C-alpha cells in the first residue's frame, strides 16, 4: 500500500508555468531570424508581429499567423510569419496544450516542438507537425548518433522510422504517425481542435491527443488542473523509450518552440503530391490562401 502510494506520488506533476493570452508575450521571445528549414517565410520580431496582427494576445486567446494580404516580390523576402521560443527551459515535465486551431493548407508547415542547445546534441521532440494540410499529425525525435527506437511500442500510432540520428535519412528522425485523422488539419480545426500533452521523463517520452469532442479526455487536462498524473492519461498516441537510446546523453533542457513556415525542406518537397503549381509561386502569389494558416491557442501549461 505504501509502495503504491509512493509510486503514484512520483507520477504526479505540479503546475509550474501557465501561458494564457498575453502571458505568451512575456514567456516567449519572437525569433526574427532566417528559417533553418529554408522556408519561403520572413520571421518577424514581436513589435512587427503585433502591429500587423500576426501575433494577437488578448484574454484567453493567443493567435499566431502568416500574412494573408500581401502579394510577394519573387526576388524579395518570404511571407511574413511567426516563430516563438520559450524563455524557460524544461526537462522532466508534462506539457498540456489546449488548442482551438492549427495552421492548415497547401504550403504550410506548422510545428509545436521542444529543442535543446547545440542541435542535434541537446535533442529535439516534435509534438505537432504536418505539411500541406495533410493529416494526420507526425511525432518525431531528432538526436545525435546512437539513438534508435524499437519498431513496436505501447502506443496507438504507427512507427514510420526508427533511427533518431539527425545525420541519417536526411534528418527524418524516428517518427510516429498518429492513427487519428482529427489530430491535424481540417479534421482538427472543424471540431474546434482539442488537447495535446507531452510527458518527458528520464526514460520515456510520450505524446497524447484528445479531440475536442473526446469522451476520454482526462478531467485534469480538460480543466487545466494544478496537478496531473499521466498514469491516468491512457495509451499514448506515440511513445519513445530508452532501451536503445540513452536519454541522459541525448536529451538536455529544452525550450518550447512554435512556428509556421511555408514550403522549405519538408513542405516544399512534399508539395507536388497534393497541391497546385509550385510551392514558392503559390506562396508568392496567393495571400488569401493563407487565411487558414494560424495557430489559436487557449492555454499551454507546464507541470514539473
Ligand atoms: C487580430 O486578430 C484577432 C485574432 O484573429 C482578431 O480577432 C482581430 O479582429 C484582429 N484585429 C484586427 C484589427 O484585424
Automatic annotation (TrEMBL):
<dbReference type="GO" id="GO:0004553">
    <property type="term" value="F:hydrolase activity, hydrolyzing O-glycosyl compounds"/>
</dbReference>
<protein>
    <submittedName>
        <fullName>Laminarinase</fullName>
    </submittedName>
</protein>
<dbReference type="GO" id="GO:0009251">
    <property type="term" value="P:glucan catabolic process"/>
</dbReference>
<dbReference type="Pfam" id="PF26113">
    <property type="entry name" value="GH16_XgeA"/>
</dbReference>
<feature type="domain" description="GH16">
    <location>
        <begin position="11"/>
        <end position="291"/>
    </location>
</feature>
<dbReference type="InterPro" id="IPR050546">
    <property type="entry name" value="Glycosyl_Hydrlase_16"/>
</dbReference>
<dbReference type="InterPro" id="IPR000757">
    <property type="entry name" value="Beta-glucanase-like"/>
</dbReference>
<dbReference type="InterPro" id="IPR013320">
    <property type="entry name" value="ConA-like_dom_sf"/>
</dbReference>
